[in-house]
Amino acid sequence: MEKLPELPERILRLHKLRWNELIDTHRFTGDHLKWHESRERRRQAAKPQFSLAPPPPTPLGRTPSRETFYGTDGQPVPYGEWREQQMVAWAARENQPDIIDTIGVAETVLLAKARFADVIGDYLALWAARANCNSDEFAQWSIGVAQLVGVEVCDLWRKGEWHSSWVDRMCPKKIDEALGPPVKDWGRRASKLEMQHLENPHLSLESLLGAGGSTAFALSLEQYKKTIKDAQEVLDRFNVADVPTRNQEGQLNSNSPESGTKPKAHAVGERGVSTINEERKPDPIDSFKLPPELCALLSPKDQEKVFSEVVAIDVGLRMEDPEIEQRRQMGIHLWMLFDAIAALLQSQDGFKERMVEDLIPRVVERIRRDMFWYPHDGVDLKEFHLVPVIRKWRHAVLPAQPNKVEPIIEVQFPSPAPDPATLLARAQRRRAVVDPILQQRRWKPGRLATKAGVGKNSVYDYLNGTRAKITEDNRKAIAQALGLTPDELPD
Q1: pTM greater than 0.85 (yes/no)
Q2: Nearest of 203, 133, 209, 146 to residue 174 by alpha carbon
Q3: What's the CA gap between 337 and 331, in Å, rounded?
Q4: By C-alpha distance, which of 434, 436, 439, 441 is closest to 459?
Q5: What is the distance, to the nearest Å, from the Cα of residue 359 to the centroid of all Cα atoms in its chain?
Q6: Separation between Cα atoms, residue 394 and residue 382, nearest integer Å
Q7: Is 77 exposed, middle or buried (0-12, 13-18, 19+ CB in 10 A)?
Q8: Which of 140, 146, 347, 480 could form an S-S bond across to 179 if both were Cys, CB 3.0 to 4.6 Å?
């Protein structure tokens, strides 16, 4: 296993808490040890890889299609007899060891991918903070993180002789294959940051990472850090009393510079450090992550755009940018964030009805809380600060939709919106059925969309859980492409 650097205690504790949350979300809390005994899971694993549905009816006036069914002896048989034979074979497969071995593999791989995504960013931040960074070094780290995640996930199964043997036999190779692409992606990201740093030596890797690769934002971060550093140096040199004083007994007063007691510093502004000797608090942007409900709706590229906007607003607030400061109490920084998110979501279904009225205000409120932005008194943003921008987008003229008509999956937006755990549980339920078929046929989700004749976004959103309901036509098309009946395709 590749040697990894030591993380700070705070980050290690954070990783522990995130791991506990992932275990609960993915339901690896002990019941997973009974999955292989579950009749329902065995039946699902043994399901035929083709449809058992009868041939479609022939419209009047057309020649009936001649679809031949072959029995176990290789001879043509009626559909009813063929289906009965398939059902018997299905029941027999439920107890086959190779079928039972497939149970739990997809869920274990999904947990490994989530865990890797949860921790790798902290190692990238640690690498960027080092002097003379080499992206080849981080590439080795990412391999080591993937290996560590594989061990960590597999250990959840090592609770007995059978499960230990099973996980060693079925999971490591699958996990390595699943983590290979993200390991390469993170290595390329580090390489890109190093190239930007070498091309712009005045910008640190930390600033480039915090700015999402934007050199303009990275320059603002560098200026911000320099301002804070200069201000801190001034405060560190500042003394409350320049001339030593003595009491009636001739002893130096405790606030005298010669007494050996450090004087207290004056308090500074609203966004500054409260005293000289007060320990500096960590920057919220170092641990900031976009809300999961927003990430589920945005592509990685659009997520970077929102993250960059958060950084830019935070820098403007801390540097008291006049353009923001003059209208800060009105909530202009919240309007800016709202506009950035709304511009990326305006083409989605239910934008005005659900997103403008509910989703985006909740996301803005969560980001405001995580970043410690004004207002700090717990006021309802939707009822006060966000009223103008909500009204603006409620009456905005949205871009025209393309003329191309393609089957789509209908979205039923519940109220309130499902939390990330609900989305993840829905995705797991669907992928438990669909992923094994895709793997067997060596299909990507895009290939499934082509075979089914539906839009790619429809299939991707169905698999990641963001689509709550699908139309009957699309259900039939996707199920038929997978060799399932519509009833066998999970909701």
Answers
A1: no
A2: 146
A3: 10
A4: 434
A5: 17
A6: 13
A7: middle
A8: 146
Round to whole Å and give the CA distance between 315 and 377: 21
Size of the chain, expressed as the number of residues it contains: 491
- Give one word for 490, left, alpha or beta, with left for phi > 0 and alpha for psi -120 to 50: beta
Tokens, residue 218: 């990275």
Treating both helix axes as pointing N-terminal to C-terminal, what angle do 456-463 and 445-452 enclose, rounded to 10 degrees?
A: 130
User: Where do the domains of the chain lie, and which CATH numbers do they carry?
Assistant: 9-46+101-199 (no CATH), 211-242+264-279 (no CATH), 286-394 (no CATH), 420-488 (1.10.260.40)
Q: Which residues contact 392 (CB under 8 A, 6 or more apart)?
A: none
User: Phi/psi at 133 (nearest 5 deg)?
Assistant: -70, 140
* Nearest Cα to Cα of residue 368 among 340, 408, 331: 331
Q: 245-254, 328-337, 440-449: lowest mean pLDDT where?
A: 245-254
**Out of 102-106, 135-139, 158-162, 216-220, which region has the weakest mean confidence (pLDDT)?**
216-220
Residue reference for tokens 């940051």:
193
Smallest Cα–Cα separation from 410: which of 491, 338, 311? 491
Task: Give the pLDDT mean for 241-255.
Answer: 50
Q: Which of helix, strand or coil describes residue 358?
A: helix
DSSP character string of 437-474:
HHHHHT--HHHHHHHHTS-HHHHHHHHTT------HHH
Token pair of 29 as six digits: 């809390």
